[in-house]
């Protein structure tokens, strides 16, 4: 399988999807959305973008499977499976805020081999393929070299559904407010991970996430020299609904703090 060629075609598709999303946003009303559940919105843009991507990606790899935010699972037991979030940051999009990202990962036998996160606000595409380096708009990227939590800028997110762990989570954020350079909540987990990969953020942590939120970004972080894990330090971050990501230098300290509050 020529992953470089497939990556190039995938980037072309996200370029096209980004143009559509920007065009639709210009004529969008805050009332033009459906409510999936409390604090979770879906627009016609989500649906049409995912349908477009699935149609085109299926032609790149015939007989593949899909896991998507809007369409659910389709042949997810196939050798090759695409994991798609057509619009990560829907609430931002509705309110004309950034970041908003298209997130696409390709899995081969449950292992990531391609990751693309296209942030449409700044028109920045973060991407990598198995055996290659990580890039942003053709420029090689790396995780940061910050070596302490005290000097680290951390990204996080707020849970939409699972509030059972919220008190512990708020205590963890309070701890980081005192012990880190600062916390940022951008509203797009895929973008948060891409920013860890390029060194804009030194670390990221969040729970109550889905595979399409993290699959592409987590792969890009690893390809850029970083580390990714669940809150126990294991590798169940894709389907385990919790993730930390950082450079190698602060990973142990970040994980220890998360484990202390979220275990």
Can you describe this structure in just a few lines?
The chain has helices at residues 3-26, 44-60, 90-94, 166-179, 189-198, 211-223, 251-262, and strands at 34-37, 40-42, 65-68, 72-74, 80-88, 101-108, 111-119, 124-129, 135-136, 139-140, 153-156, 182-185, 203-207, 227-229, 242-246.
SSE blueprint and pairings:
Blueprint: H1 3-26, E1 34-37, E2 40-42, H2 44-60, E3 65-68, E4 72-74, E5 80-88, H3 90-94, E6 101-108, E7 111-119, E8 124-129, E9 135-136, E10 139-140, E11 153-156, H4 166-179, E12 182-185, H5 189-198, E13 203-207, H6 211-223, E14 227-229, E15 242-246, H7 251-262
Parallel strand pairs: 3-5, 11-12, 11-13
Antiparallel strand pairs: 1-2, 3-4, 5-6, 6-7, 7-8, 8-9, 9-10, 13-15, 14-15
Description:
The chain is of the alpha+beta class and 263 residues long. It has two domains: 3-140, Fructose-1,6-Bisphosphatase, subunit A, domain 1 (Fructose-1,6-Bisphosphatase, Chain A, domain 1, 2-Layer Sandwich), CATH 3.30.540.10; 149-262, D-Maltodextrin-Binding Protein, domain 2, CATH 3.40.190.80. Helix content is 36%, strand content 27%. It contains seven helices and 15 strands. The strands form three sheets. It has an eight-stranded mixed β-sheet with strand order 4-3-5-6-7-8-9-10, with helices on both faces. The chain has a five-stranded mixed β-sheet with strand order 12-11-13-15-14, sandwiched between helices. Strands 1-2 form a two-stranded antiparallel ribbon. Helix 5 runs parallel beside helix 6. The longest helix is centred in the N-terminal third of the chain and has 24 residues, at 3-26. The radius of gyration is 17 Å and the shape is globular.
């Amino acid at each position: 399988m020529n992953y470089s060629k497939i990556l190039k075609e995938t980037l072309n598709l996200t370029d096209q999807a980004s143009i559509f999303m920007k065009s639709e946003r210009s004529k969008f009303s805050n009332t033009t959305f459906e409510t999936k559940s409390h604090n979770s919105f879906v627009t016609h843009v989500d649906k049409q973008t995912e349908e477009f991507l699935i149609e085109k990606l299926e032609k790149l790899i015939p007989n593949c499977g899909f896991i998507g935010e809007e369409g659910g699972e389709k042949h997810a037991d196939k050798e090759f499976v695409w994991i798609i979030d057509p619009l990560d940051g829907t609430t931002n999009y509705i309110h004309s805020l950034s970041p908003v990202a298209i997130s696409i990962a390709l899995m081969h036998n449950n292992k990531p081999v391609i990751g693309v996160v296209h942030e449409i606000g700044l028109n920045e595409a973060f991407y990598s393929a198995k055996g290659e380096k990580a890039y942003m708009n053709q420029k090689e990227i790396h995780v940061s070299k910050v070596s302490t939590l005290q000097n680290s800028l951390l990204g996080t997110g707020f849970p939409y559904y699972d509030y059972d762990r919220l008190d512990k989570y708020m205590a963890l954020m309070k701890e980081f407010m005192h012990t880190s350079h600062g916390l940022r909540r951008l509203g797009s987990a895929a973008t948060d991970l891409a920013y860890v990969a390029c060194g804009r953020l030194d670390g990221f942590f969040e729970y109550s996430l889905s595979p399409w939120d993290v699959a592409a970004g987590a792969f890009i972080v690893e390809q850029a020299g970083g580390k990714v894990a669940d809150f126990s330090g294991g590798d169940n971050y894709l389907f385990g609904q919790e993730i930390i990501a950082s450079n190698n230098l602060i990973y142990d300290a970040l994980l220890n703090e998360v484990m202390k509050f979220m275990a």
